[in-house]
Recover the amino acids of this structure.
């Protein structure tokens, strides 16, 4: 047993310039674990609360209260505990704040602490974090397939387009490095196309281009052209992935596409998205309906669950019970795993395990507010997750995660790259084996 010697929280700053929490956990043997809480902009109502001070200062986003709770309540409770017993550590955090969304201590204070303990234990064992995660949870490590944003929209780009993330994946790549190369070509081809057409407004929250398109379809058309300009045939090595983030523009089965000034009900949105699936090589779609629209999500999954990956993010908020419920309902076939949505490492791993039990895919994801923290690159690899979503292909809070994967790849060897493994059950997977779409 290596006991925790100290837990120290401090205020640092994230990629949007907002305050956030960093935690140092020092063990009795001198090992140090450090982690930083990320922050979402399009947040599920059931996810762990980001505790902020409110008021006028720092636009209400101060973390003084969360830090006070961390240093005065969390730290004394954890000191002396066995750091290697991640579950007991996380259960202690939950006992200190048993509210469903962690509103007393804050998910931000808790997640940074929980992850810092995980780092400290890996350091104490002299292991890379991914190796510690694989050993601790009995998983077979493999490098995930990146899901990379080309255009940002929704809450990450002033709602200039309704759909939040227009992304690509390169499931036909042989290595992680090959994915990076193809992505570079597509990303810059997209930028060139947009600037030549006068629809490039800048860079969105996660590093993707901030577009000025007239419709969501124009975004999809431009993405197809960019893939072609990069020398690829859309749907072969490169495919499209969308995060609709429908909770951002719909409630109770009513949706409003602001770009086209169009209101629709759940059935109409399902039909619209279905027509996109028929037209474009989209292999994965996240939160196609709102977090409160279970009938819509079930209907969408019934229609498309056999041909595309349907990910629950705001819909499942990295919660094992919600994953099990969705499986029983017939909604979704994959879960997005965001540790800060759950609040602790153990709860995030439980959601991951529930997804695996259900025979689902699992995608580890960053938040739109990020930092230099690379924990998720290791978690995705150590758990053997199918994909990793960290935003786009610029800005260091994103690139630091891709670059960390390249280092991990050297330790692992390329034959452990997940590539299109998780997409075997989709039209893309069937196409690889010569079957029809
Ligand atoms: C999402 C994430 C990342 P946010 O919706 O999947 O794109 O966004 O962190 O703002 O919730
Ligand atoms: Mg999402």
């Amino acid at each position: 047993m290596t006991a925790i010697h100290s837990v120290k929280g401090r205020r640092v700053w994230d990629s949007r310039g907002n305050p956030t929490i960093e935690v140092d956990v020092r063990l009795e043997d001198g090992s140090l674990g450090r982690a930083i809480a990320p922050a979402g902009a399009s947040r599920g109502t059931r996810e762990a609360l980001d505790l902020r001070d409110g008021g006028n200062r720092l636009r209400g986003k101060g973390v003084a209260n969360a830090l006070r709770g961390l240093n005065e309540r969390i730290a004394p409770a954890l000191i002396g505990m066995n750091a290697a017993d991640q579950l007991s550590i996380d259960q202690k955090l939950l006992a200190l704040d048993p509210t469903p969304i962690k509103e007393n201590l804050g998910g931000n204070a808790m997640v940074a602490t929980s992850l810092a303990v995980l780092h400290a234990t890996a350091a104490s064992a002299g292991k890379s974090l991914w190796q510690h995660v694989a050993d601790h949870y009995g998983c077979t490590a493999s490098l995930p397939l990146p899901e990379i944003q080309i255009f940002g929209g929704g809450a990450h780009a002033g709602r200039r387009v309704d759909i939040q993330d227009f992304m690509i994946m390169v499931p036909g790549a042989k290595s992680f490095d090959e994915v990076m190369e193809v992505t570079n070509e597509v990303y810059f081809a997209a930028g060139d196309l947009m600037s030549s057409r006068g629809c490039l407004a800048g860079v969105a929250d996660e590093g993707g281009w901030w577009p000025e398109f007239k419709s969501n379809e124009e975004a999809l058309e431009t993405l197809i052209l960019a893939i072609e300009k990069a020398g690829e045939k859309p749907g072969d090595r490169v495919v499209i992935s969308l995060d609709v983030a429908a909770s951002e523009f719909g409630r109770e089965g009513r949706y409003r596409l602001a770009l086209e000034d169009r209101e629709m009900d759940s059935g109409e949105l399902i039909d619209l998205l279905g027509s996109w699936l028929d037209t474009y090589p989209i292999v994965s779609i996240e939160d196609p309906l709102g977090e409160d629209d279970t009938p819509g999500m079930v209907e969408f999954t019934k229609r498309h669950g056999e041909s595309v990956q349907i990910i629950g993010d705001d819909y499942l908020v990295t919660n094992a019970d919600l994953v099990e419920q969705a499986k029983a309902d017939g909604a979704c076939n994959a879960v997005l795993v965001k540790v800060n949505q759950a609040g602790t490492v153990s709860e995030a791993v439980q959601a991951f395990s529930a997804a695996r039990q259900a025979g689902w895919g699992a995608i580890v994801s960053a938040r739109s507010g990020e930092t230099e923290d690379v924990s998720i690159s290791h978690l995705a690899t150590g758990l053997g997750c199918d994909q990793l979503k960290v935003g786009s292909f610029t800005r260091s809070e994103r690139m630091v995660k891709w670059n960390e994967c390249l280092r991990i790849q050297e330790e692992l060897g390329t034959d452990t790259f997940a590539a299109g493994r998780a997409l075997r059950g989709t039209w893309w997977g069937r196409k690889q084996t010569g079957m029809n779409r």
